[in-house]
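Reminder to self: tokens first, then the designed residues, so the page reads top to bottom the way the pipeline ran.
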């Protein structure tokens, strides 16, 4: 099966525009055995930022084999977030991909503060919020060990001054934020869902003759 138009509706890995209709710029097909059968490559362009992605598809089946670069990494994806937390978190990814790490730091700070508030924690400073979350057992104590870095990222990002933030520094803060959000929202919901499924699967083995 040739490239399907539905494959062009994607989230841009460069500017994080959601479900945008990518424009097909070029295509090529390889029928050789070395290619593992019949494969097609399509190069798409984002209508917002102009950046390109490559999609490898199988002609023999309606399947995407590989996308380079892929959509925003699953490593940064967090499910079951409250609307405001998700908005700040997504904004942080978008502006970081756009090359503005200081603005991304501000959005990460907002995401963490909003997440703490949803857990009934409002200690006036971000560091105190994180410490309180750990104290309540909502996140592990290991998170407290990197609060010095989070303090710097939050302060530099939020205030004008001579200090600037590098992409690497903000990416570390992004990783920290992702793990905190998973601990607070994703893991509890996934566990709750799993427990519901287990209860549905239970049966009365006393009525079964072996």
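Designed residues (210 positions):
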């Amino acid at each position: 099966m040739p490239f399907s138009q539905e494959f062009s509706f994607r989230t841009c890995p460069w500017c994080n525009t959601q479900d945008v209709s990518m424009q097909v710029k070029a295509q090529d097909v390889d029928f050789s055995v070395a290619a593992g059968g019949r494969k097609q490559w399509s190069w798409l362009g984002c209508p917002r930022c102009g950046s390109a992605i490559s999609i490898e598809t199988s002609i023999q089946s309606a399947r995407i084999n590989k996308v380079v670069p892929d959509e925003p990494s699953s490593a940064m994806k967090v499910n079951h977030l409250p609307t405001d937390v998700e908005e700040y978190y997504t904004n942080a990814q978008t502006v970081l991909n756009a090359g503005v790490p200081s603005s991304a730091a501000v959005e990460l700070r907002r995401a963490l503060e909003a997440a703490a508030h949803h857990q009934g924690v409002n200690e006036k400073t971000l560091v105190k919020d994180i410490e309180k979350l750990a104290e309540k057992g909502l996140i592990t104590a290991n998170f407290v060990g990197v609060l010095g870095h989070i303090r710097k990222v939050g302060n530099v990002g939020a205030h004008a001054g001579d200090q600037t933030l590098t992409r690497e520094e903000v990416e570390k803060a992004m990783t920290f934020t992702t793990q905190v959000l998973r601990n607070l929202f994703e893991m509890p919901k996934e566990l709750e869902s799993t427990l519901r499924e287990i209860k549905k699967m239970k049966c009365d083995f006393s009525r079964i003759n072996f």
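Strands lie at 9-10, 20-21, 23-30, 39-45, 52-58, 63-68.
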